[in-house]
Design brief:
The complex is a heterodimer of chains A (510) and B (700).
Chain A (H helix, E strand, L loop, with lengths): L6 H17 L6 H24 L11 E9 L6 E7 L4 H17 L8 H20 L3 H10 L1 H11 L4 H30 L4 H7 L4 H18 L8 H8 L2 H26 L1 H27 L4 H20 L4 H32 L10 H4 L1 H14 L6 H14 L7 H26 L5 H8 L9 H19 L2 H25 L1
Chain B lengths: L17 H16 L5 H28 L5 E11 L2 E9 L1 H31 L6 H20 L3 H19 L14 H31 L4 H7 L5 H18 L8 H4 L5 H10 L4 H8 L1 H4 L3 H23 L4 H22 L2 H39 L4 H5 L13 H4 L1 H15 L5 H16 L1 H26 L6 H4 L6 H16 L10 H12 L11 H23 L10 H6 L1 H7 L4 H68 L5 H31 L1
Antiparallel strand pairs in B: 1-2
Helix pairs in contact in B: 1-2, 1-4, 2-3, 2-4, 3-4, 3-10, 3-15, 3-22, 4-5, 5-6, 6-8, 8-11, 8-13, 10-15, 11-14, 13-14, 13-20, 13-26, 14-15, 14-19, 14-20, 15-18, 15-19, 15-22, 18-20, 18-22, 19-20, 19-24, 20-24, 27-28
The chains are: A mainly alpha (510), B mainly alpha (700).
Chain lengths: 510, 700
C-alpha cells in the first residue's frame, strides 16, 4: 500500500483513475466526460502540489528525493529497476505538466464535440506518460514513458486534428521514433556495460572514456534534439502544430518539447559531462541558428498557428543556449525559460484557438482591427505577446536575460559572439510577434468580421470559461516576471550540483 | 514590511516605491471601475495619481536636501538572484533621480490635466468616445514605467522602465490603431507604433550587450558597484560598454541612426507627443549617459563619439525641420535636434548643461506640442463648425481635411490669442532668445563645446541657427498672414482646461533659466552630490559672453530671414514654399527627410522581408520540408520498405488490417486509416531498429 500511495506513484498514475472512470460513462454524456477528465486532472495538480509542499520534499536538497526503486526486470545481467524520483531539475516541469493539463482540457469544452470520451482518454494517458518522463530515474523506464507519450499524441493529432492530420500524425510519430532508436541503443550499451540503468548510479560511476562519451552523447542528443526541436530537425513541428487540435498544441508546445530539453539536462550533461563540454560550442551554434532562423521563418508566415509553431524553434533555441552555457545563470535561465515557454506559448495557442473556434480560419490576412470588436481578447493577447517577446517585468524577460547573460560569459561556449548574435533574436522576436499582433488586432477591420456576421452571429469577446482558462497563465506570467525568486529557489541547489558534476569532469579532462 | 530597508530612516525616502504604485493604482481603478465613470472622473483620477507622484517627488527632494544630498536606497524585494548575479527591486533616491522625478511628474501632471480637455474633443472627432478611458490608463502606466526608469538602482531595473516606457509609447502612438492621422481606416498608425517599438528594440539590443559586458567584467549591474569596478577595467571594456549603451541611447533618445521612429510617433494624440515624445521618455537616453558619467569619463574616445552623434543629429534633424509642413512634424524634428544638443552635452562631459537643457526643453517643448494640439483642435472646431452650420454641402466637407497642415492655417493669432501668446513664448525659448529658458541652457552647452569640442560647437551653432529659422517660419505660417482656408477663418480658441496648463508651462519656459543661472548654479549644486559621490568632478559652467552674443546674433538673424521669406510677404493658398524656389533640390531633400526612410526600406526592411520569405518558403518548406523530408527521406524509406517487406506487408499486415476493418465496419474511417498507417510504420521502424542493432553488434 505504501508503494501504491507513494507521492510520485500517485501523481504519475492518478490520471488512470480518471481513465477508469471514463469507461463507465456513456459516450453520449459529454458533460460528465468533460467534468470527469477536468476533475481528474485538477486532482492530479493538487497531488503535484502536495508532492512539493506536503510530502517532505526539501527544495534546498540538491539530490533526488522521494525516490522509489524496485527491482523490475532482471534478465541475464541486466538490472532494470522501476525507479522514480524528483529534484530541482524536474519539480517545476512536473508542476507545469499538471498545471497545463487541466487548462488544456478546459479549452476543449466546446472545441471538441466529436468522440469526446476517446479524446479525454488519450489526454489523460498522455499526462501519465509526460509525468513519467519527468520522474523516471531508470533509463529503461524513462525510455518506456518517452515512447509511450507518442501514442496518445499520435491519436490526438490524427483523429481530432485539421485536414492534413493523418500525414502530420504519422510524421510526428516516425520522426520522433526514428530519433529515439539510437538513444535506445545507447541506453542498452550503458545498462549492459555499466551494469545498471539507474541514473544516479550511472552518474556516480562515471568513468566512461571521452571517445565513447561522444557517441553516447550524440545518440541521446539526436533523440532529444528532434523533440526540442533543434534546428535543423524541426521539420515535423509545423505539421504537428498546425494540424493538432488546440489542446494538443498547448500540450505539445507546453510540455512535450520540454521533454527534449529536459533530457539534455537530466542525461546528456551528467552522464556524459566531458562530451557535453566538448560539444557545447556546437550545440550553442545550432541553438543560435535556431533562434535567428526560427524568428525569421516565423515572420514570413501567414497562418497564425504556424507562426507560433516556428516561434517555438526560436524560443527553444534560447533554452538550448542556456543549457550549454553550462553555468548556473544559463542553466537556471534555461529551466525557467522552459516554464515560461510553456506558459506563454501555451497561452498563445489557446488564444489563437479561441478565435479560430469562431472564425474557422487562421489566415492572418483576413483579420485586422479585432481589438475594437474583442477588447478583452485583444488585451489578453497583448500581454501574452509581450511575455513571449521578453518584455521586462514579464516572465519571458527573466528567462531570456539570464540565459543570454550566462551564455555571454560561458567558458564552455568560449565566446560572447554566440550570445551576442542570440540577443539579436530579441529584436527579431519583436518583429514577428508585433507583426502577428498588428495583423490581427490593429489596423482597419478585417474581412473576417463581416464574414462571420454573414453566418448569423457577430464575433463575440471571450466568455467567462475562456477567461478562466487564461487567467492562471497570466498570473504566472506576471509572477515570474516580477518575483521569480521562489522558482529559482526550487531549482538552484540541483542546478549547482549538476554544474559541479560537469565542471569536475571538465577539469579532469585537462 | 513592504517598504523597509531605507538606508536613511529619516525623511520620506520610504515613499520612493509609491512613485510606481500610485499611478498603478490610478490605472487599476480606471481599468476595473472606469466603465461606469464619467470622463471627468476618469481624467481626475489619472491626474490625481500623477499629481500625487509630484508631491512624493517634492517630499523626496526635501528629504534629500535635509540629508545633505546623500542618496538613499529603498529595497522593495529581491528580483533575480543566481550565483553572483544579484538584482533587486531597489529604488535609488539621489539628486539626479529626483530631478528627473520632478520633471516627469510635474510636466506629466500638467499634461494629464490638459488631456482631460484635449481627449474629450479628440475622441469625438474620431467617433470613438469609448477610447477615452484607455488613454488615461496608458498615461498612468507611462508615469509608473518612467518612475521605474529614473529611480532604478541598477542597469537592469532601469531597463525595465526603459522597455516599459517603450511599450507605452507603442500603445499611445497606436492609440488610433485603426486609422491614419487624418482618421481614415488605415494601417498607418499601427505601422508607426510598430516602427517605434522595433527601432527601440534595436537600441535595447545594444543596452543588453552593455549589461552582459558589465556583468562579466564588473561582476554586478548595480550602479555603485559598476562605477567602483570600472576604473580597474581595460580601456577596451569601457569603450565596449559605453558604445553599446550609446546604441540604446540612439534608440530611446532618437539619435542617428535610430531616430527614424520619432517623426512617425506623431501619430499619437498630441498630449502623448508632448509628454512622451518630447518632454520625458526621449530624454531617457540623456539621463542614461549622465547616470553612467563615471563610465564615459573613463574614455575620451567614447565621449567624443557620443558628442559627435549628438552634434550631427542636432544639425541633420534641424535641416529636415525646415522643410516640413505639418505643425507637429516640425516640432518632432526639432525634438530630435534638441535631443542632439543634450546628447552632445552629456557626451562632452558637460552633464549639468545637458541636464539643464533637458529640463528647460521639457518645459518649452511640452508647451509647444500642447499649443500645437490646441491649434489643431482649434482647426478641428472650425472644420466641425463649417460641416454643421456652413454650406450644408455635406459631401464637400467629407473631403479629407488635414488640421495639422500649416499650409491650411494662417492668421490664427486673431482667432486663438491665448494659444498664440504661449506658442510664441515656447518658440522664443526654443530659439534661444534672451531671457527665455532655452537661452540659458543652450548657451551653457555651446559655451562648453566652445572650450574643447570645436567641431561639435560649429555643428550645434549652425543647428541653433536653423532652430530659430524653422520656428520663425512656423510662427509666420501659422499665426500671421491671411487665413488660407475657410477652416482657419473659423478656428476657435480652446477652453480653460487646455489653456491653463499652457500658461503654467509658458511661465516655466520663461523663467526656467533661473534654475541654473550663471553665478548661481542652483541645478549644478543640486546634482553635484550625485556626480561627486561616484567620483565625477563637475566643472562649473562658465558664462561665455562671446558665445552668448554670437548665438543670439545668429538666432536674431535667422528670425529676420524667416520674416523676409514668410512674414513680409505671407504665403497664399496654393503657393509653393518660397525656400523651394531659392534652394531647389536642397529644399526637396529637406522636404523628403533626405530619403532616410526610403533608404531603410530598401536596405534593411525589404532585405529582411526577402530573406524571411526565402528562408520560410524556399529553404524551410520547398527544400527542407517537401524535398528533403518527403522525397529523400520518406522516398528512400518507402523504397526500402517496398524492397524489404513487400510480401510481408501486403500478405500479412494489410490482410489483417483489412479483415479487421471488415469486421468493424462501423468504426470511424479516420481511425482505421490511421491505425493502418500506424501499424505499418511501427512495424517498419522496429525492423529498422533491429537492423541497426544487428549492424552495431556485427561491427563491434
Amino acid at each position: 500500500m505504501d508503494f501504491v500511495l507513494h507521492p510520485l506513484n500517485l501523481v504519475t498514475f492518478f490520471p488512470l483513475v480518471g481513465v477508469l472512470a471514463l469507461f463507465f460513462i456513456d459516450k453520449e454524456n459529454k458533460e460528465a466526460i468533460r467534468w470527469t477528465a477536468l476533475v481528474t486532472s485538477l486532482i492530479t495538480f493538487v497531488i503535484s502540489l502536495w508532492v512539493l509542499f506536503g510530502s517532505g520534499y526539501d527544495p534546498a536538497n540538491p539530490d533526488l528525493q522521494l525516490v522509489i526503486r524496485k527491482s523490475w526486470i532482471q534478465v541475464a545481467n541486466w538490472d532494470i529497476t522501476y525507479a522514480l524520483g524528483v529534484d530541482g531539475l524536474s519539480i517545476l516541469l512536473l508542476l507545469l505538466t499538471t498545471f497545463l493539463t487541466p487548462i488544456a482540457i478546459l479549452s476543449t469544452w466546446t472545441a471538441i464535440e466529436d468522440r469526446v470520451k476517446d479524446f479525454m482518454l488519450f489526454f489523460l494517458l498522455l499526462e501519465v506518460g509526460m509525468i513519467g518522463v519527468f520522474l523516471a530515474q531508470d533509463l529503461f523506464l524513462f525510455y518506456i514513458f518517452w515512447e509511450f507519450t507518442l501514442v496518445p499524441m499520435y491519436f490526438l493529432v490524427g483523429i481530432w486534428g485539421g485536414p492534413n492530420r493523418i500525414y502530420a500524425a504519422i510524421k510526428f510519430f516516425l520522426y520522433t521514433m526514428a530519433g529515439s532508436i539510437l538513444m535506445l541503443l545507447a541506453i542498452l550499451w550503458l545498462g549492459i556495460h555499466q551494469g545498471t540503468f539507474y541514473v544516479p548510479q550511472l552518474i556516480e560511476m562515471g568513468g566512461i572514456p571521452l571517445s565513447v562519451q561522444k557517441w553516447l552523447f550524440l545518440a541521446f542528443a539526436l533523440a532529444f534534439a528532434i523533440k526540442v526541436p533543434m534546428w535543423p530537425l524541426h521539420s515535423w513541428l509545423p505539421d504537428a502544430h498546425v494540424q493538432a487540435p488546440t489542446a494538443g498544441s498547448v500540450i505539445l508546445a507546453g510540455v512535450l518539447l520540454k521533454m527534449g530539453t529536459y533530457g539534455f539536462l537530466r542525461f546528456n550533461l551528467p552522464l556524459f559531462p566531458q562530451a557535453a563540454v566538448k560539444y557545447a560550442p556546437t550545440m550553442a551554434l545550432l541553438a543560435v541558428i535556431g533562434i535567428l532562423y526560427g524568428a525569421a521563418v516565423s515572420y514570413a508566415q501567414q497562418d497564425a498557428k504556424k507562426l507560433v509553431a516556428y516561434s517555438s524553434v526560436s524560443h527553444l533555441g534560447f533554452v538550448m543556449l542556456g543549457i550549454f552555457a553550462l553555468n548556473s545563470q544559463g542553466v537556471q535561465g534555461a529551466i525557467l525559460q522552459m516554464i515560461n515557454h510553456g506558459l506563454s506559448t501555451g497561452a498563445l495557442f489557446l488564444l489563437v484557438g479561441m478565435v479560430y473556434e469562431q472564425t474557422h480560419t487562421r489566415d492572418l490576412n483576413v483579420y485586422g482591427g479585432l481589438w475594437k470588436v474583442m477588447p478583452v481578447y485583444g488585451t489578453l493577447m497583448l500581454i501574452v505577446t509581450l511575455s513571449s517577446m521578453g518584455l521586462p517585468g514579464l516572465n519571458g524577460f527573466v528567462g531570456e536575460f539570464t540565459i543570454l547573460l550566462g551564455a555571454f560569459g560561458s567558458q564552455a561556449i568560449g565566446s560572447p559572439w554566440y550570445a551576442g548574435l542570440a540577443a539579436a533574436g530579441v529584436i527579431l522576436a519583436a518583429v514577428y510577434m508585433l507583426y502577428m499582433y498588428q495583423k490581427m488586432f490593429l489596423g482597419p477591420q478585417g474581412s473576417i468580421v463581416e464574414e462571420v456576421k454573414k453566418h448569423g452571429h457577430a464575433l463575440r469577446d471571450l466568455n467567462a470559461r475562456e477567461i478562466i482558462t487564461l487567467v492562471p497563465l497570466l498570473v504566472f506570467i506576471f509572477w515570474i516576471g516580477l518575483y521569480p525568486k521562489p522558482f529559482f529557489a526550487l531549482m538552484a541547489p540541483s542546478v549547482d550540483k549538476l554544474i559541479n558534476i560537469v565542471q569536475t569532469a571538465a577539469m579532469a579532462m585537462h | 514590511m513592504l517598504l523597509s530597508e531605507a538606508t536613511h530612516s529619516a525623511g520620506f525616502f520610504f515613499l520612493a516605491p509609491w512613485l510606481v504604485f500610485v499611478p498603478l493604482i490610478g490605472l487599476l481603478i480606471n481599468l476595473i471601475f472606469g466603465r461606469r465613470f464619467s470622463e471627468k472622473t476618469i481624467g481626475t483620477i489619472a491626474s490625481l495619481a500623477a499629481g500625487t507622484d509630484f508631491v512624493i517627488a517634492v517630499l523626496l527632494a526635501w528629504s534629500l536636501a535635509a540629508a545633505g544630498g546623500h542618496e538613499a536606497q529603498v529595497t522593495l524585494a529581491e528580483w533575480i538572484h543566481i550565483g553572483n548575479l544579484q538584482l533587486d527591486w531597489t529604488f535609488r533616491v539621489d539628486t539626479l533621480s529626483v530631478m528627473m522625478m520632478l520633471v516627469v511628474s510635474g510636466v506629466g501632471t500638467l499634461i494629464h490635466i490638459y488631456a482631460i480637455g484635449y481627449m474629450h474633443e479628440d475622441v469625438r472627432y474620431k467617433n470613438d468616445p469609448g477610447r477615452y478611458r484607455r488613454f488615461f490608463i496608458y498615461l498612468n502606466l507611462f508615469i509608473a514605467m518612467m518612475m521605474i526608469l529614473v529611480s532604478g538602482d541598477s542597469y537592469l531595473m532601469l531597463f525595465v522602465g526603459w522597455e516599459g516606457v517603450g511599450l507605452c509609447s507603442f500603445l499611445l502612438i497606436g492609440f488610433w490603431y485603426d486609422m491614419d492621422t487624418l482618421g481614415r481606416p488605415s494601417w498607418a498608425n499601427s505601422n508607426a507604433a510598430k516602427k517605434a517599438f522595433i527601432a527601440n528594440r534595436v537600441g535595447d539590443f545594444g543596452f543588453l550587450l552593455a549589461a552582459f559586458t558589465m556583468f562579466w567584467y564588473f561582476g554586478t549591474l548595480q550602479f555603485d558597484g559598476v562605477f567602483a569596478a570600472a576604473p580597474q577595467a581595460s580601456e577596451g571594456v569601457i569603450l565596449a560598454v559605453t558604445l553599446f549603451l550609446l546604441i540604446g541611447v540612439t534608440g530611446k533618445s532618437a539619435q542617428i541612426p535610430l531616430y527614424i521612429w520619432l517623426p512617425d510617433a506623431m501619430a499619437g494624440p498630441t498630449p502623448v507627443s508632448a509628454l512622451i515624445h518630447a518632454a520625458t521618455m526621449v530624454t531617457a537616453g540623456v539621463y542614461l549617459v549622465a547616470r553612467s558619467a563615471p563610465l564615459y569619463s573613463l574614455s575620451h574616445q567614447a565621449q567624443y563619439i557620443v558628442a559627435m552623434v549628438g552634434g550631427v543629429t542636432a544639425l541633420f534633424a534641424a535641416t529636415i525641420a525646415v522643410g516640413q509642413y505639418d505643425i507637429k512634424k516640425v516640432l518632432a524634428y526639432s525634438t530630435i535636434s534638441q535631443l542632439g544638443f543634450m546628447v552632445a552635452a552629456v557626451g562632452m562631459g558637460a552633464y549639468v548643461a545637458g541636464l539643464f537643457h533637458l529640463v528647460t526643453h521639457a518645459f518649452f517643448k511640452a508647451l509647444l506640442f500642447l499649443s500645437a494640439g490646441s491649434v489643431i483642435l482649434g482647426m478641428e472646431r472650425g472644420h466641425h463648425h463649417l460641416a454643421h452650420h456652413g454650406h450644408g454641402d455635406a459631401h464637400h466637407e467629407e473631403e479629407v481635411f488635414d488640421p495639422g497642415d500649416m499650409r491650411n492655417m494662417g492668421n490664427l493669432r486673431k482667432r486663438m490669442p491665448v494659444t498664440f501668446t504661449v506658442y510664441l513664448i515656447g518658440a522664443l525659448a526654443l530659439g534661444g532668445i534672451f531671457p527665455f529658458a532655452g537661452f540659458w541652457s543652450k548657451d551653457e552647452i555651446l559655451a562648453e563645446a566652445f572650450k574643447e569640442f570645436k567641431t561639435v560647437y560649429w555643428l550645434l551653432a549652425i543647428a541653433a541657427f536653423f532652430t530659430a529659422f524653422y520656428m520663425g517660419r512656423q510662427i509666420w505660417m501659422v499665426f500671421f498672414g491671411n487665413e488660407r482656408t475657410e477652416v482657419a477663418a473659423h478656428a476657435e480658441e480652446s477652453p480653460r482646461v487646455i489653456t491653463v496648463p499652457l500658461m503654467i508651462l509658458a511661465a516655466l519656459s520663461t523663467l526656467g533659466g533661473a534654475l541654473n543661472l550663471p553665478g548661481l548654479h542652483t541645478l549644478e549644486t543640486w546634482v553635484e552630490h550625485t556626480f561627486e559621490a561616484v567620483g565625477v568632478h563637475l566643472n562649473v559652467g562658465e558664462f561665455n559672453l562671446t558665445v552668448a552674443l554670437s548665438s543670439t546674433g545668429l538666432a536674431l538673424l535667422a528670425i529676420f530671414l524667416s520674416w523676409l521669406l514668410y512674414g513680409r510677404k505671407p504665403l497664399q493658398a496654393g503657393d509653393a514654399d518660397p525656400l523651394k524656389k531659392m534652394l531647389g533640390p536642397i529644399f526637396t531633400g529637406m522636404e523628403n527627410k533626405w530619403w532616410v526612410d526610403e533608404g531603410y526600406q530598401a536596405l534593411v526592411i525589404d532585405r529582411y522581408n526577402d530573406l524571411a520569405r526565402f528562408l520560410a518558403q524556399t529553404l524551410d518548406w520547398d527544400f527542407w520540408h517537401d524535398w528533403f523530408h518527403e522525397k529523400v527521406i520518406a522516398g528512400a524509406y518507402h523504397g526500402l520498405v517496398a524492397f524489404l517487406s513487400d510480401p510481408i506487408d501486403r500478405g500479412l499486415i494489410d490482410a489483417a488490417a483489412n479483415g479487421l476493418a471488415r469486421l468493424t465496419k462501423n468504426s470511424a474511417a479516420s481511425l482505421r486509416r490511421l491505425q493502418n498507417g500506424f501499424v505499418r510504420s511501427y512495424a517498419l521502424s522496429v525492423l529498422l531498429g533491429v537492423v541497426l542493432i544487428m549492424g552495431y553488434l556485427l561491427i563491434k
